[in-house]
Design a protein that fits this description.
The complex is a heterodimer of chains A (233) and B (402). Chain A is built from 7 helices and 10 strands. Chain A is α/β, with parallel strands linked by helices and 233 residues long. In chain B, helix 9 (261-304) packs across helix 11 (319-355) and helix 11 (319-355) packs antiparallel against helix 12 (368-391). Classes of the chains: A alpha/beta (233), B alpha+beta (402).
Chain lengths: 233, 402
């Protein structure tokens, strides 16, 4: 069974008087261990799709099965749990807590995880967070605040935060959008490494070059998903 | 996330916004201080007035002519044509009421006292030789009336200290003559200055024997009778005996009203408790203002940290986690403010008491737990709405919030 399965997903919302149809009958399935990119221009609906896959937003119609569970029937608390346990987010603008150190930012998802796993002690959280920061190459800067770090380093903190709970899925929304090309390359290499270790990675981007670094490319346009030959899937 | 971790997070958030948290706390500090200090002023005033009352004489019993049915009469003395208290009543009490330590009839009226040097408008109080014992009056020069002075109605006078100073200055007054309402009296004693006690100032009074005063005012009807019980515990027996003696003399009719020190203090306490509660209610308003301050700041904080809320929700915080976080922050601010307020008001009142022992405004200890819980609940009540607001922000909107 596919890890992610979207069935006939629609999303529309009102913007003033106008009814925007952001997603129009999306059907995809992504298997565990895949490295997929969703590419599209601004306003194509790719971010809306990522928000739905990441359980940050709910579809207006259709069903979304994550790891075999129908998420459209879940309570808000269950959605929070799934976000915490199964999904890691990486955002274009990093979205780190500005007044917390790199380590504290990485510890945060594990603190919420301790609600589900009573064995998670403070010292375990600290140890695993430090390990994860080491894994993304930031072991020397764990006590720095985000504004004391470079863009690439901040994105590594964000990736460490996304990984710390060992999620099955890493969702990255324009992860290199705020970075220079050299740093972007390093971050993409890191995603490939993580994918080779078994994490399912989905990268949302407007950049075709980045998209084509991925094994599977899904293209969004006007709320409709196409393969690269322009055929609706 | 477990409670302790949220508590740590909240404490960190408060420290991160030091100035704002301190200003919010100030509202709470002032609120709690207002509660404690105003209640302290209320109880301090009560303590002071009660002790003033007791210094007038602890076992005092007042008998007024006429009867009213109201209890704890603090109202004006009843003027009645029906009841009539006379010197004969006083003499009967002196003879028959064994539980009384002292009994005196009193006559009270306005008058003029003068000598060659000065003229004073004063209050004249007619009393017998036992009166000074009832009210703990100290004679610093000469003597109070003797039994003979009273029985023969001699024209003698005991002067309050201010009157003596006005008429004689620092020279000797004993044995000198003064005119009281044009009738010559000889000064036989001076009373120790005591100052104003509940509007009754001995220093401004002239005392003459009861019989002389009845003659002066041309009446046989006493203003009232004052007595004291032998002991404080014997006051009820004394009242019963006094009532029995007077009733027998008045054809079995209770045409007089008895007021004791106990009933006076009780009704005074009722008034002073009301005062304390009223002050407490005023203080409660400042607590309310402090609470609104907390709510205001928490709402600002929620708006300001919308993005943080989005991030926390994205990594797995439940609505209840966010709710708890903001609630705890509000309560931590209010409780810290409350504790500081308690501490500061204790420090102020005890420092004042240390340097000015007469100014005893130390808070009663019963006020401390309610002040603490009041600050706690203020935090809870005024923190709920902002916290609920925070918990119900849509994650996706919060993440986009700039």
């Amino acid at each position: 069974m596919a890890l992610i399965e979207l069935k006939n997903i629609h999303k529309h919302f009102l913007m003033g008087e106008e009814n925007i149809h952001a997603l129009n009958s999306i059907n995809i399935s992504i298997n565990e261990g895949e490295l997929t990119s969703i590419v599209g221009t601004s306003g194509s609906g790719k971010s809306t799709l990522m928000n739905i896959i990441g359980l940050l937003d709910l579809p207006s119609e259709g069903q979304y099965f994550l790891d075999g569970k129908n998420t459209t029937e879940m309570s808000d608390d269950d959605l929070s749990k799934y976000r915490n346990q199964k999904i890691g987010f990486v955002f274009q603008s990093f979205n780190l807590l500005p007044k917390s150190s790199a380590l504290k930012n990485v510890e945060m998802p594990m603190q919420y995880a301790s609600a589900y796993n009573k064995n998670l002690t403070d010292s375990m959280i600290r140890k695993m967070s430090l390990e994860t920061l080491d894994k993304v190459g930031l072991s020397s800067r764990v006590h720095h605040l985000p504004n004391e770090l470079s863009g690439g380093q901040r994105q590594r903190v964000a990736i460490a935060r996304a990984l710390v709970n060992n999620p099955k899925i890493l969702l990255a929304d324009e992860p290199t959008g705020a970075l220079d090309s050299k740093t972007s390359e390093e971050i993409l290499t890191l995603f490939h490494e993580l994918n080779s270790q078994g994490v399912t990675v989905i990268i949302v981007t407007h950049d075709n070059k980045i998209a084509h670094r991925c094994r599977r490319v899904l293209s969004m346009s006007d709320g409709i998903m196409q393969d690269l030959d322009g055929i609706k899937i | 996330m477990i409670f302790r971790k949220i508590l740590v997070n909240s404490a960190e958030a408060i420290v991160e916004n030091k100035l704002r948290s301190a200003l919010t706390m100030l509202g709470m500090i002032i609120g709690v201080m207002a509660v404690i200090l105003l209640v302290s002023v209320g109880t301090g005033a009560k303590r002071y007035i009660t002790s003033e009352f007791e210094s007038l004489g602890t076992n005092v019993i007042l008998v007024q002519p006429g009867k009213t049915d109201k209890k704890n009469s603090m109202g004006p003395p009843v003027a009645s044509s029906k009841g009539k208290l006379t010197i004969a009543d006083v003499e009967a009490l002196q003879k028959n009421a064994q539980s009384l330590a002292a009994v005196s009839g009193v006559m009270f009226g306005a008058g003029v006292v003068k000598n060659d040097l000065a003229t004073n408008n004063i209050n004249i109080l007619g009393s017998n030789d036992q009166f000074n014992r009832i009210f703990n009056m100290t004679i610093i020069e000469g003597n109070y009336f003797s039994k003979e002075d009273e029985e023969s109605g001699r024209r003698v006078a005991v002067l309050g200290h201010t009157i003596k100073e006005n008429l004689f200055g620092s020279s000797n007054a004993l044995g000198k003559l003064v005119k009281i309402n044009e009738s010559e009296h000889r000064v036989i004693g001076i009373i120790k200055p005591t100052g104003d006690k509940l509007g009754f100032n001995v220093d401004d009074m002239v005392f003459i024997p009861t019989k002389s005063s009845l003659r002066l005012f041309n009446t046989d009807k006493l203003f009232g009778i004052r007595a004291s019980a032998k002991s404080r515990s014997g006051i009820d027996d004394a009242v019963a005996e006094l009532t029995a003696v007077l009733k027998e003399r008045h054809n079995g009719e209770e045409d007089f009203t008895i007021i004791t020190q106990v009933t006076m203090v009780e009704s005074m306490n009722t008034i002073l408790n009301m005062l304390t509660y009223a002050l407490g209610a005023i203080a409660f308003i400042s607590m309310l203002v402090g609470g609104i301050g907390i709510m205001n700041i928490m709402l600002v904080s929620v708006t300001e940290r919308t993005r943080e809320i989005g991030i926390r929700r994205a990594v797995g915080a439940r609505r209840s986690d966010i709710l708890k976080q903001f609630m705890i922050e509000a309560v931590v601010i209010s409780v810290s403010g409350g504790l500081l307020g308690i501490f500061i008001s204790m420090a102020i009142t005890y420092t004042l008491y240390f340097f000015l022992p007469g100014f005893d405004m130390r808070p009663p200890f019963w006020i401390l737990p309610p002040s603490f819980f009041l600050s706690f609940f203020t935090g809870v009540i005024f923190g709920v709405w902002p916290a609920r607001k925070a918990a119900h922000i849509q994650t996706i909107d919060a993440l986009r919030y700039e």
